[in-house]
Amino acid sequence: MPTVHVFARDHINTDEIIPARHLTTDVEAELAKFAMEDYDKTFVQRVQPGDLIVAGADFGCGSSREHAVWALRGAGVSAVIAPNFARIYYRNSINNGFLALECDGIVEAFQDGDNADLDLQAGTITNTRTGQALTFVPVPQFALDVQKAGGWLEYMKEHDAADLEAETLNAHSTEAGHGHPGHDSTEFDSAAPNPAAQEKTHA
User: Which family does this protein fall into (predicted)?
Assistant: First the structure.
């Protein structure tokens, strides 16, 4: 079960998620070393792959830097759950295949260090210590597909490859005479000679 790290304050901004002084790289593993540094210097020592962050409202406000998503993902965080998110941070999360889940009452339901059972299909998160279960805003299937692919660019690469394969298969089918554009058997049938009509003509 993933461990929950609670950052209860509202309006945690991108500079607190990853301080601007560390924006000298785009490498997630490097950014991860400084994740949440100005809020909790012990976070990077405590976080484990798959852990969750529970945060207050308007998480990720401030700048539009994608580094704020990369730093948390690089640190191993699998999702952030908050009552709501800054719009740009939420969009950056989807584009990068990172889960940002909106859930009312989430801060009150967890203490730092609790374990959680996160069920994306059911849309629930359960505190395994208390048994309390909360429902979060369902994640659109499209966003789940992007998350599974690892981000928007990877998702598009996969779909471009799939579309190319489909086009290739369709081309082979057309060459074999199946599904040929404009082919209508009735056109050929109506144009074919009618033996009975020919007999009447020559009678």
Answer: Belongs to the LeuD family. LeuD type 2 subfamily.
The span from the CA of 137 to the CA of 143, in Å, is: 12
The predicted-structure confidence for 54-92, as pLDDT tens digits, reads as follows 999 999 999 999 999 999 999 999 999 999 999 999 999
Q: For the ranges 65-69, 164-168, 186-190, which has the lowest average pLDDT?
A: 186-190
CA–CA distance, 131 with 197 (Å, rounded to integer)? 84
Listed in sequence order, the residues at least 6 apart from 58 whose beta carbon sits closer than 8 Å to its beta carbon are: 10, 11, 12, 82, 84, 85, 86
Domain residues of the chain, as ranges? 3-139, 145-172
Give the separation between CA 130 and CA 115, rounded to whole angstroms: 10
In terms of CATH, what superfamily is 3-139? Aconitase, domain 4 (3.20.19.10)
Q: Which long-range contacts (CB under 8 A, 24 or more apart) does 136-140 make?
A: 136/81, 136/101, 136/102, 136/103, 136/106, 137/101, 137/102, 137/103, 139/99, 139/101
d(CA 117, CA 94): 21
User: Which DSSP category does 61 fall into?
Assistant: B
- Write phi, then psi, for 72 (nearest 5 degrees): -70, -40
